[in-house]
Design a protein that fits this description.
Elements: E1 3-7, E2 19-26, E3 43-45, E4 51-53, E5 56-64, E6 69-71, E7 77-81, H1 86-95, E8 120-121, E9 124-125, E10 130-137, E11 141-145, H2 147-150, H3 158-161, E12 166-174, H4 188-194, H5 202-216, E13 224-228, E14 234-236, H6 237-246, E15 253-254, E16 259-261, H7 264-270, E17 281-284, E18 287-293, H8 299-317, E19 326-328
Parallel strand pairs: 2-5, 3-5, 4-19
Antiparallel strand pairs: 1-2, 6-7, 7-12, 8-9, 10-11, 10-12, 13-18, 14-16, 15-16, 17-18
The structure holds flavin-adenine dinucleotide.
Length: about 325
Amino acid sequence: MIREHVRLDRFNTFGLPAVAERYLPLRHPEQLSGSAFERAPDLVLGGGSNLLLMEEIPGLTVHVLLSGIEWTDGRGRFRVAAGTDWNQFVRYTLEAGFPGMENLILIPGTVGASPVQNIGAYGAEVSEFITAVHAWEYGRGPVTLSPADCNFGYRDSRFKHEPGRYLITSVEFDLSERRPLKLAYGAIGSELERRGISDPTPADVANAVTHIRRSKLPDWFFLGNSGSFFKNPVVDRADYERLAADHPDMPSYPIDDESVKLPAGWLIDRAGLRGTGTERVGSYDKQALVLVNRGQARGTDVLAFSEDVRQIVHRKFGVCLEPEVRQVPAPTGQVG
Ligand SMILES: Cc1cc2nc3c(=O)[nH]c(=O)nc-3n(C[C@H](O)[C@H](O)[C@H](O)COP(=O)(O)OP(=O)(O)OC[C@H]3O[C@@H](n4cnc5c(N)ncnc54)[C@H](O)[C@@H]3O)c2cc1C
């Protein structure tokens, strides 16, 4: 049933005050054939961990609460309902003896949102494991998209570019293939060494990633945040070389012959912004890329601070930072 003027403060990890004009919890797939799903709602809400909500959310918000894990063949294939907690699913696969996603442990949010920005961490991306995405196409009905249909890229997919077209209802994963562990990314290697582990199991990697994430990222339950606020910018090689000449210690990740990815957190840190801000909002002191709600922040406070960060970084390095989080409602002139 659609309710009016429902507070979303508890449903976004930034803990921002927001009211949905109309709110519909989606708990059963049968609800999709109702008239509410003939056209796109104004907001599809999962775990609210990648959103920057303004105080008034006009129109209809659909909260995806479909849940359940189906182990389809007993050999590492799973079909998971969109509202299932991502971290719970990763733990389930590891306990069931199907490793692969250990580097993706502890990412907040729902399974249904995982293809939207092709979540990734510590050298792994969810698109490596997805075999199909089941969705409701507004005005059409149920559809199934193959990985190729999803156009996965770095923190990107077709779902980001067509926000008013699909509501993801479930996702299929294949974990039957044994893959080598990914140990070379971030602090995984040094954390395993610190623990005296030279021949790690997937569970060791999961424990190491859990420890690293807990020590680096604030717990949103106590300090509201949306994880990385900006994407890592990708620049032309010529721009990279100009920057590297001025900042020889700048980390960088070549993408191809023409472009290089730079760590947004490093740029923000070196612009002198780590730990700065106001009493309401700021950059986290242990990880500059994470903007935090220091208490009583509103969406407009976070937006204003993020604009300052963008301008200062641009002035110092000539690099444009783009938000990774989705602002709702979208800024005027933007869709979705
Ligand atoms: C502390 C912290 C750490 C994080 N670390 C990482 C990280 O390491 N890697 C990473 O990639 N991300 C990270 N994130 C970001 C976030 O966890 C992911 O983007 C996550 O997938 C968002 O899931 P959600 O259910 O909360 O989506 P929401 O925030 O509710 O929604 C995000 C977007 O997906 C859309 N959406 C949600 N559900 C559906 C659906 N069923 N169908 C269609 N569209 C849908 C929404 O409309 C919105 O556009 C982090 C966030 C936090 C707070």
